[in-house]
Structure formats: structure tokens, C-alpha cells
Amino acid sequence: MLKATQLSKTYKSGKALDNASIQLNSGQISGLLGRNGAGKTTLFKILCGLVTPDTGKVSITSKKSKPIGAVIEEPGLYSYLNAYDNLKVFSQIQGAPTNITTLENCLTEVGLPLNRKDPVRNFSMGMKQRLGIAIALLNNPDILILDEPFSGLDPTGVASLSALIKQLANRNIAILLSSHLMGELHKVCDDLYLIDNGKIINHGDIQGIMDSHVTQYTISAKNIESADVIQPYKIQTEKDKVTLQCGSEAISDILKNLLESGYKVTSCVPNITLEQLLNPVYK
Description:
The chain is of the alpha/beta class. It contains nine helices and 13 strands.
């Protein structure tokens, strides 16, 4: 679908990308994780054709004239227009269909109400993100790139947008997204690229990468703090919640034991920092 090979880009301020390679496949959600200034936005702009790399190549397998849709940095909306009129203006700019049925279907697809006639400056951040995605989908692209789509959203907005991203992947769209919310990337992504100082320092199945780094988990269940199996691993407890110091192999056995002992586990969340994922072992 999309294959970028050994992309490099240097600005006056320094090297933004250093031989970065990435591949996106149909129906797959890929995550890109790194510190601020690691090169994520530069990579996105090169993939979208907005910036020319110094070296390297981007090849896209698609029969469409505009195979990529993107929301980079933040949705660039006309704040004084309503959602429908924003969509119509961008459709005209992009040469996409502008009929009422098509535009209303676009709004409905991303979960925006058709009865909102007020300017988008009144919209929540989550609604603006959805409208930005609707604009990115106007030409029915094969590839969707989202730069920090969860930024500024409350937990409900994050969950709602995550569900939308999964739905779009089910349409066989290749999706690449960046986020500082590692827990959310873990929930929605199939694979993960780690970028540091312009270099892709690791890539693989997201569960495998997380498992190889995580040493703490937080488990929620009624009265879990009294369970015998957690006592050797327990480092912090709250009512119906406990944080354990253990690896991925041990947590599987612990969860199995809890279930067999009658504890109804409602969540098991890996505790991991960005610094742990950018461990020098991968450099």
C-alpha cells in the first residue's frame, strides 16, 4: 500500500529524519510514538507529499488520484462556518463530490450530527477532530494519516474517536497515527514504530513491544487487594485496585489465578513510560 524507504531530511535547525523507513498495509492501524521533536510531523508531511525528502523514496500502490487523506498537527477548519459548509468548501477545493447526500453521509460516518448549524468554533475538540477526519476522507483515500488525533480530548472523546478509527480500518484503509497516549495506541494499533532523533529505532507487533518492556500492571477487581496471589508482587493498593511489579509472563498466571479464585477483573492496564519504550537496547 505505502512503503517509505530510508527517508532523510535536514533543516537549518538540524536533522529531522535519518534513514527512516515505514510500511503501511490495507486494514492495518500503525502507531508512531516518540518524543516532541523526534521527527513525527516531518515524516507525516513527507508521506503526504508536502515536504520533499533529501534522500529516500515513498511509493504508494493505489489506483486513486488522491490516495492519502491526512490531519496533520490540527484540523484546519473555517471557524465561522458550520460543519456542513466546511465540508462543502473543502470538497470544492479537493474536487470531491459536493452534493447534499454525499456530504451528509460524510458527517454521519464520522458521528457528527446533521442538525448542528452553528459555527464550528462552538464545537468541542472531539467534534473538530471528527470533522477533520471527514475532510480527510472526502476523496475516499486508501491511506489515512492522523497526527495526535487524541490531543485535548477527554476520556469519553478518546474512546469514541478510537472506535471510529477502528471502523475506518475495517473499510480496508491503511491508518497511521501518532499519539502520546501509549495506552490508547495499545488499544487501537496493530503495530508500532518507535522514533527517536529522526530514526526509527524499533518496529513490531505492538503487544510484543509492550510485553518486552512492561514491568508493572494495575489490576482492578472488587476486593482484589486481599487476593493471595498478588501479595508477592503488590507494590501499591487502593480500594478494588492494585499495582503489581511483574513481567508479562507472570501477569498471565496471576490473571488466570484471580479468575479461578472468583475475582471479576474489570481491567488490567500495563504501566509504562515513553522513556521505557525508547530504551537504548533498541538503538
